[in-house]
Amino acid sequence: MTGLQKFFTNILPAAWAKDMEAESRQWMVRCTCGYEQSVWELGGIRWKAKGNPKQLRRCPQCGQQTWHTITRKTNL
Ligand SMILES: [Zn+2]
């Protein structure tokens, strides 16, 4: 866990912290090459959020700086 994640996990009630982590794991950051990682794995938090934002970042798979799309993956 990153400092940011620890901080929120500590200040939030346990149930909320669990919910926050579960939701952050559903948000996937995807490169144009197809590589994807969850927001949580990347050390971030995305909780109670809507929309599909884009983020400019370097992809560990293709090594390119590309616009990654952030989409929520639900287990349906
Ligand atoms: Zn890539």
Structural account:
- The chain has 76 residues and is an alpha+beta fold.
- It has one domain.
- The chain is 29% helix and 26% strand.
- It is built from two helices and four strands.
- It has helices at 3-11, 14-26, and strands at residues 27-30, 36-38, 54-58, 65-72.
- A four-stranded antiparallel sheet has the order 2-1-4-3.
- It is globular.
- It starts with a helix and ends with a strand.
- Bound molecules: zinc ion (ZN).
- Zinc ion (ZN) binds at residues 31, 33, 35, 59, 61-62, 64, 66.
Keywords:
76 residues, alpha+beta, globular, binds zinc ion
Give the overall shape, derived from the CA principal axes. Answer: globular
Structure classification? alpha+beta
Order of helices and strands: HHEEEE
Determine the number of helices (DSSP H or I, runs of at least 4 residues): 2
Q: What is the strand content?
A: 25-35%
Low-pLDDT runs? none
* Helical residues, percent: 25-40%
| Computed Rg | 13 Å
Q: How would a crystallographer describe the biggest sheet?
A: 4 strands, antiparallel
Number of domains: 1
Our measurement of the CA-to-CA distance between the termini, rounded to an integer number of angstroms, reads 27 Å
Mean pLDDT equals: 95
Total strands: 4
Q: Which ligands accompany this protein?
A: zinc ion
Strand line-up across the major sheet: 2-1-4-3
Brief digest:
The protein has one domain (3-72). Helix content is 29%, strand content 26%.
Question: Secondary-structure blueprint of this entry?
Answer:
Layout: H1 3-11, H2 14-26, E1 27-30, E2 36-38, E3 54-58, E4 65-72
Antiparallel strand pairs: 1-2, 1-4, 3-4
The structure holds zinc ion (ZN).
